[in-house]
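Notes from the 1:1 (GR / supervisor)

We went over the backlog. Supervisor wanted to see one worked example end to end before approving the batch request, so GR pasted a single chain during the call. The sequence is below; no edits were made to it. Supervisor asked that the structure be written out right there so they could see what the output format looks like.
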Amino acid sequence: MKATISLDGIWKFLQSLSLSASNKEWLGEKLLEEARKEKLEKEEPYESFIWSMCGAWNDDPRTTEEIMGDIRNSRSEN
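Structure output shown during the call:
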């Protein structure tokens, strides 16, 4: 069975629920996470790669300045 639901209808339904602030925040984060995944799938491969690298250095013990310095120092001509 195929149903058509308007976003206004969904919004009114959500407002009718007695959701706590943390429930609303969770729902919002889930929606954003899903939207970002869909956008990444539609982007060019290099853009997906760049976004996948976000946070890649979280476990690195170096400071931000040390990482930036290493990147700058590793550049070479040609």
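Supervisor's comment: Residues 21-42 form the longest helix (22 residues).
Batch request approved.
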